[in-house]
Protein 1
Amino acid sequence: MLAVKWGGASFVTSYVKGAAEYAAGKSKSISGITADDATGKITITLTQPYGAFLNVLAFQELGLVPKGSPMKTVTTDPLPAGVGPYIVKNIVPNRSYDGIRNPDWTDTTIPGIPAGHVDVHVKIASNTNTEAESVLNNSADVFDWGDQIPPSLMPQVTSQASDRFKKQATLSTFYFFMNTQSKPFSSQLARQAVIVGLDRQALARLNGGNFVPTCWFIPQGLVGHPKSQCPYGDPAAAPNIAKAKQLVQQSGMAGQKVTVWSQNRDPRKEFTAYYTDLLNKIGFKATTKVIADTQYFPTIGNQKSTNPQTGFADWNQDFPNPSDFYLLMDANSIQPTNNENFSQVNDPHIQSELKVLNQVPASKLQSVASRWEQLDEYTAKKAYAAVYGQQQVPQFYSNKIDFSKAIFHPLFGTDYTSIQLKSQ
């Protein structure tokens, strides 16, 4: 996981003894991890308590692999990293792969994890219009829940496929990052200007009405989501462009050139087109730089070659703990490559709070709920990110699929084992 430079590496490098040194190439092994081949016992030593570490161990990226496995990405020939009802085969990078039912898996192999009903062929595409039309006309069977149905097609979907379509709430945060370490967003007033001028309802319309407008980094439904009013106005209200222009002037950053980084994927490129236009309206000189879908996050996460000023970002829950979202505000997450703290926030108050809050075990999260809320209120007031929405996602299938049997998982979305054809 560290050798292939996973973006979430700071979940490990910040807490496992020797992991940071290994990731930096200063040691050949991780001193805090020992394995006893005779007993099968693995011992991990942490540098400090971390309440969410059991959740971290459940990441796919931390899956155990055989000794001698190559220390590089093996995309087309994946390692035997686990067992389950499906086997991944026939991988064509950035184009397709197959999920084949495991012939050795039955409904009783592990209680609660059933065998699959169908084999799955996954096509990877960025054209959500084509995706949605294919499912609507039944030439494809499952729409990717990580995408959005284009607004122009929503009336057809809701009228022609109401029995096989449903909106599902997610624990997610969609935002525009603003690099706090370089102009113009090194100025808090400049960052405030963006938030004051942001039209969250317009962004929701671009997303087919599938955003709940918000200003908070910790989403609703998660411990730590604030109950107070947003510091710069009601997120559901109209924006204040005049005030935004005034703040840009006060910041001394008027006329600054800004490059807005955009993912080449609908409706995300529409989000950034709107955002670029807003920046120009309030006093900056902004242009958009569009990056291929699959290369976007590795590109904006590379500080050495890119060090982006601002652009699209989002985060979906990995595990039910606010520390998962605050990885993106943690100074320890700033990395030369695969950086996740795109705003490059390095705030002593946030660091001091995380040092305490990150230690709290999951079973005691409610005891520090108010402290997480206060931290998120502080982050919103400092305008470290222009948060605009918590997303609802589509569960949308062809008429061949038994919609009543399909399970939508709050973290992983479509549960392949629940997908089955209607009875003939």
Note: The chain has 13 helices and 14 strands.
Protein 2
Amino acid sequence: MSVEHIAVVGAGAWGTALASIAARAGRTVTLCARDAGTVAQIAATRENPRLPGIRLDERIAVAAALADVARADAILLVIPAQALREAATALAPHLRASTPVVACAKGIERGTHKFMTEVIAEALPAARPAILSGPSFASDVARGLPTAVTLACADDTLSAELAHALGSQTFRPYHSTDVRGVEIGGAAKNVLAIAAGIVQGRSLGASATAALVTRGFAELARFGRALGARAETLTGLSGLGDVVLSCSTPQSRNFSLGVALGEGRKPDGKLAEGAFTASVLVELANQKGVEMPISAAVAAVLDGRLSVDGAIDSLLTRPFRAEG
């Protein structure tokens, strides 16, 4: 198939950034926002207030109606994980059969324990689901700073075509068929980023951060292996790469949430996917018999079952064991 027209559903910072990279790659792009006022503002100013200072390429059309994306060759669904099913269901009547639909959210659906491509497969049975994930911040991508990510779907030919359609000199998507591995990395790293932020907020030091990130990645890898992920995916961009990025800078909303919790202050209210993913990640891990003590501690703090100090004590007093 030829991917010349890409629609981006969701006009937040990440959706706007992805629309920009698709235009930079030479594609025709439609950016679909759910709010008519947002559409009018972006169309008039060619700038999204959620991504200030970034002027939209003139090749990007802005629309409010989902029917306007129906003619696209591929659709990027850039919707928060817990709202993705609702958006996909709304898109269903307008979707052409066999259209690739790429999830660009990192999470697991609460209640169902479904990953994003599973939600797409259920809500859009005519679609060809894919996932885009990896170490990337919207502002970096939109400004054209070098970024590499992973794009996965079950069909290797399609994943390569989609990667080619989005790729440019500064945005490099590596293609894969390990859909589950890519999804696990994106979901689990958000929870680990909250933990790393707590360590920062409590001023526990760089040594503690290094230990936390290393042992956290061991959790992610155990969970991934239990669900059939490939080792090279877990140690690749969408796994280890995203852990390194998200656990190291306040640009990560999940890290910033953790810092606020560690400092004992109220979070800023910005969406942090890990806050919704933590409990369902632990539930799914328990079902699979996978031990994830750091993720469990984060979930307990977020749910109000443990204080931050109690969570730290619970990890520091765990029995000594062999590394693995």
Note: The radius of gyration is 19 Å.
Protein 3
Amino acid sequence: MKLKPIAASMAISAAMALMSGSASAITVSGVTWDPNSPFDFVAQSALFESVATTAGQTITGYGKINLFNLEDQDSFCPGCELTFKFYDYVLAASITGTAGETFNFTGGKLDVYVSSRNFSATNPATATDGTLFLSLAGIDVNADTYTLTGTLTTASTIGAQIAGQGSGYFNVTGGAAAAYFDTNGQIGGSDILYTSSFTPLATPIVSGGVVYTHAGTAEITGDTTAVPEPGVLALLGLGLVGLGAARRNKKSA
């Protein structure tokens, strides 16, 4: 079948138009966002966590994402919610609880889930009962082995009463939305930057043998990208083939 130049051009234009349209909004497992948003990618969350004061101790925690690209839950996840669990962060050196004291962790993982709206702040199991949306792993961007660093903001001789703030980076390692967040757009080729703060809970949450002594917030930033659907790629390929055929026909005319 021979295609005239104008037909080939129309095929390519149609393919490009579809690719452009696919980039305007993305939906994965019920979560919808716009990669062209000036706030892409910004998320804010509430979290609950354990504390570590002695070298070798680990921290774990869980929480819920309340804002995604500064849109509320009814906009980015109608009828669903995004929750998460973090774990395997290992304290590198013991801390004394002095205001201004720094702390460092190695390792660390975070899993994000999409589920029905059943999250309970007092029940950590409700943060991990959905579809895996993203798997993230802490990354050492400064070549010092540390994946989470921070500072204590209040002094205390009782470990459970410390408060502070920290930050670190993640690499995307899996999950239904991995292809959209694996952009290597942060320092050291990492994918996501996060900052967090934590303060003591008046009443600790005890679940599964873990004592969650602190509550806090976290801000997560990065970039997402649109991944063309297979059908769009096929159409683009058809357009390019048509253009090639048209050029050959023009040369032989």
Note: The mean pLDDT is 86.
Protein 4
Amino acid sequence: MPDILHVSGLRVTRGDTDILRGIDWRVQKGEHWAILGPNGCGKTSLLKSITGYLSPTAGEISLLGKRYGHADWRQQRLEIGIVTSALQASIPPAETGLETVVSGRYAQLDLWAHPTRKELAEGRRLLKFVGLSYLEKREWAHLSQGERQRVLIARALMVRPRLLILDEPCAGLDPVAREEFLRFVEAVARRRGGPSLILVTHHAEEIMPAFTHALLLAAGAVYASGPKAKVVTSRRLAGAFGARIRVRTAEGRFAVAVAHRRR
């Protein structure tokens, strides 16, 4: 099987600024990755590059065995799932939970297609999987932030993706809702036959036990990459964030304490 994702020598330059430089990264089948780093380190730009929304200046990107520039990336996007809060503003307030989920089959925001009975049944099954069957007829405007994020995951799973990208999915969640959502992400990661996951986060505490690897960025470059236990350490986070950081682990979770930022 080819790599799920292979990035080699990726550089993105705009004007005189190197947004990303020399990025080498490989995601293999069965791996789940967390991307973390300080604000402005290039996390969002890396996501935009691998999904074809930001053209690289140099380097190569291979996604699901297809090379960027040699394949139609619009079709490639139909084989991956993306959950980002940026989608939420484009979903009509009156669209129901089931309609939002089924819209993933058509890669549409504001569903206008006429789903088949089979597609509606699959949408209901996925709503049940994310624990939200009761939202089938509830309008988007009346969903909580946590419910919206789980509906968007169900939507992404409608295409049975081999890769699921979660872009800061816990933003805006209160502590209880965040923990409930992270436990749900853990269930998705452990689902037999499920997709590889990429979680973008500022917080090491959000890296659940099922995640196997971590990519740590700083100033547009890879600061560390590999098995999470070797990347999410006090020394490496301190170097990337420029602060005195202590990392502890308990029951497969990380806890981070920050002393003060170095000048």
Note: The chain has a mean pLDDT of 90.
